[in-house]
Amino acid sequence: MMHNNSVTEFILLGLTQDSEKQKAIFGVFLILYLMTLLGNFLIVVTIKLSQTLGSPMYFFLFYLSFADACFSTTTAPRLIVDSLFQKKIITYNECMTQIFAAHFFGCMEIFVLILMAFDRYVAICKPLRYTTIMNQHICGILVILAWVGSCIHSSAQIILALRLPFCGPNVIDHFSCDLQPLLKLACMDTYVINLLVVSNSGAICTVSFIVLLISYIVILYSLRNHSAEGRRKALSTCTSHFIVVVIFFGPCIFIYTRPLITLPIDKMVSVFYAIATPLLNPLIYTLRNAEVKNAMKKIWCGKALIKNI
After folding, report:
1. Which of 60-64, 161-165, 196-200 has the lowest mean pLDDT?
2. Which residue ranges does the record assign to the G-protein coupled receptors family 1 profile domain (predicted)?
3. Per residue in 231-263, pLDDT tens?
């Protein structure tokens, strides 16, 4: 639908045009999305209700799980519902909202992962000053800064998107709205905007990943002075953090650091990034963390016992 030389809606091509495959996509992604919500909801509620999970690490994990659930919600429901229809239409305003929300919660996740790495660094490298440095007030300020940073990043993305003029083709070869596929439809030379997107999203992903890598190398180096038990515990926590970092940043760097090229594999990488990562995070953190598992057992089994009494 065109008016005033502008596009008021876009047609998403989705993951596939094959109607049989679309039914499979509906079933598989609905289950994955519900599992993501359930897993992250369990972590959020457990941390909120538990008396034992009061440390800064779990304070940040609470926000990571919240960001995960929201990040998944920006793309998964649309992908699931669209798989029921042959023609997948998204309005211009919905498209812009999706770009803003996806970048906001994706960036929030990056900043929270950095805060978690910083928390582990202080706990392992400066144990005597840990409670002074990572007090409740400072942790609160750090989370507020993460929200503000995410808002600045997503605002920059949306300003770039709103400047794009659309006057002709309106078919997006993707399952969601993002700047890269939109740039291909704009009726202007998008070279500069593309470079800005890469320098914004690409830089955030790459620099954050390098910062996290360095922090984990420093942590591992400092562990040599710890006892065997201390080393084992610290390694267990840091390993689960590092797995999450690699799973999240790999696809992010792959998609956002290449200017002016879209590859056929992009859709699959985006699916993994937007739907699989938010599901894997709660699994990694709960399966590898005895404290979270014990707190969950106490809270949820305790509630079941109360109901039975």
Report:
1. 196-200
2. 39-285
3. 887 787 788 888 888 888 888 888 887 766 667
Give 109's pLDDT tier (boundaries 50, 70, 90): very high
pTM for the whole structure: 0.88
Question: What are the structure tokens assigned to 30, written together?
Answer: 């609905």
Q: How many domains does the chain have?
A: 1
CATH of residue 256's domain is 1.20.1070.10
Give the structural domain span for 285. Answer: 2-308
Q: Three-class SS string for the chain?
A: CEECCEECEEEECCCCCCHHHHHHHHHHHHHHHHHHHHHHHHHHHHHHHCCCCCCHHHHHHHHHHHHHHHHHHHHHHHHHHHCCCCCEEEEHHHHHHHHHHHHHHHHHHHHHHHHHHHHHHHHHHCHHHHHHHCCHHHHHHHHHHHHHHHHHHHHHHHHHHHCCCCCCCCEECCCCCCHHHHHCCCCCCCHHHHHHHHHHHHHHHHHHHHHHHHHHHHHHHHHHHCCHHHHHHHHHHHHHHHHHHHHHHHHHHHHHCCCCCCCCCHHHHHHHHHHHHHHHHHHHHHHCCHHHHHHHHHHHHHHHHHHHC
Q: How far is it, in rounded angstroms, from Cα 58 to Cα 189?
A: 46
pLDDT at 261: 67
Q: What percent of the chain has pLDDT over 70?
A: 94
Report the alpha-carbon distance of residue 288 to residue 170 in Å, rounded: 45
